[in-house]
Specification:
heterodimer, B: mainly alpha, 71% helix
Chain lengths: 276, 175
């Protein structure tokens, strides 16, 4: 390490801290800083100054609806690996080798179209994520691994959807809106062997601080199928394997509003319901 | 357990607590950068989503939680600002993201708060032209030549102003 180089890099630290450098320049700085204690200490100080600048603004009071929006969006987002998955039913190993039968019911096609649309949205956001992270090889690698996982997750979800829709024991459940959701439409498809696919449209926003949870009620006992994922304004979808413990026979599918993360048993108002 | 640890284990209450504690600061920063309430609220949602998704990878000891959220907020907001202005994206993930394993800022909230207060006082005390140049760099994500153009001043002058401002602020950290 020559003194010249140290001085050149030292002169770039301000711009580095402010995020004003190109990718190549950033990498040059980072390589040097890993080996140079003086520059590392300077950069540490600059980092504190940068944080101080962010803190120099007085906090504002966010509109109350924003918290609800943020919390509902979290409820339907998977976390990165690997310590925990938010919703045990959200990730399922789909049965392999399922073939699509001929003479598919139009409702299935509509549901499948929604699934594919959902994948498109997911792919788009994956692409945006990729664009943001690609700067750095390390970050890009992490991003690619993340993409792969999300694609796998979506592929699993799509496989599961198809296996539900084509299961020999699948029955469509007519759903209707209740309370403030009478204008909502929903289609549910229940296969005791494969699981539940529910797609809701024109669903009102859940009450503040609440999310929608889906239940399969068999033999009078409700079992959580998972949280209704947000697929766009007013649209919700859940594809889940059958909840454990549902008694064989006729079931009721219901959607209630619950606190974020959901509950083991329903507590909120029923917004959508339908029985076989 | 640490709030981010609880967040990483999928604890929604922790997410609510994190939001209650920090959303006001995050929103203030996003509004300052974007000057649009709707866009700023979108950024708040993005920040907490990113925090939720990546809490599992958060390294304690890498700075304060507030600092982590604010860094995400600044990057996201400036990306948005650049997209709006069709300016090329030159701002990368800065500092905390770019330097894994290096402690960049104090993790102790009390010490950090004291230092932030010093930066704030130092910022107010800066000569106006230094403060303006620094704020254009920090809050609008402008490069030094973009700032020179905006302020119709020579590039060398802008570099000096920003350098002097940052040196003063760094000095203010030392008691």
């Amino acid at each position: 390490m020559t003194m010249d180089r140290h001085e050149t890099i030292g002169a770039m630290l301000d711009e580095y801290a402010l995020g004003q450098l190109s990718q190549d320049e950033r990498r040059t700085v980072e390589t040097h800083v890993r080996e140079c204690d003086t520059c590392a200490a300077d950069l540490r100080e600059l980092a504190v100054v940068m944080e101080g600048l962010a803190h120099s603004l007085d906090p504002v009071t966010p509109p109350p609806a924003l918290k609800q929006r943020v919390m509902s969006s979290l409820a339907s987002q998977p976390q990165e690996p690997a310590r925990t998955v938010v919703e045990p039913n959200a990730v399922a190993i789909p049965p392999k080798g399922v073939k699509i039968r001929r003479g598919v019911h139009p409702g299935w096609l509509a549901a499948a179209a929604v699934v594919i649309l959902g994948l498109g949205v997911a792919l788009y956001s994956v692409d945006a994520t990729r664009r943001l992270l690609i700067d750095d090889v390390q970050e890009a690698q992490a991003a690619v691994a993340d993409l792969q996982r999300r694609l796998d997750l979506n592929a699993e979800q799509a496989d599961l959807a198809v296996s539900i829709l084509t299961a020999t024991d699948m029955q469509p459940v007519a759903m209707s809106g209740k309370e403030n959701a009478t204008g909502s439409t929903a289609r549910a498809y229940w296969s005791p062997a494969r699981g539940l696919l529910i797609v809701a449209n024109d669903l009102p926003m859940p009450p503040p601080g609440r999310i929608y949870q889906v239940w399969v009620i068999g033999g009078g006992t409700p079992f959580s199928a998972g949280l209704l994922g947000e697929q766009g304004v007013g649209r919700g979808m859940l594809i889940a394997p059958p909840p454990r413990g549902v008694a064989p026979g006729a079931v009721t599918v219901a959607v209630t509003d619950e606190p974020p993360g959901g509950l083991p048993a329903p507590s909120g108002s029923i917004r959508l319901a339908g029985s076989l | 357990m640490h709030l981010v640890g609880r967040l990483a284990s999928g604890d929604m209450d922790a997410a609510g607590e994190l939001y209650d504690r920090h959303a006001g600061k995050v929103l203030a920063l996003a509004r300052r950068i974007l000057r649009d309430d709707g866009d700023a609220e979108d950024v708040v949602q993005e920040v907490f989503s990113q925090a939720w998704r990546t809490a599992t990878r958060y390294e304690a000891g890498r700075g304060t939680v507030a600092g982590w959220l604010l860094m995400i907020a600044r990057t996201r907001a400036i990306d948005r600002l650049r997209a709006r202005q069709s300016r090329p994206d030159t701002t990368g993930e800065v500092l905390l993201e770019a330097m894994p394993g290096t402690t960049m800022a104090p993790s102790d909230q009390a010490i950090a708060n004291e230092q932030y207060a010093r930066v704030r006082q130092g910022l107010v005390a800066l000569p106006a032209e230094q403060r303006t140049a620094l704020e254009l760099a920090y809050f609008e994500g402008l490069s030094q030549s973009e700032i020179a153009e905006r302020l119709a001043a020579p590039l060398g002058t802008i570099k000096t102003r920003i350098r002097t401002a940052l040196t003063t602020l760094r000095r203010s950290l030392r008691p």
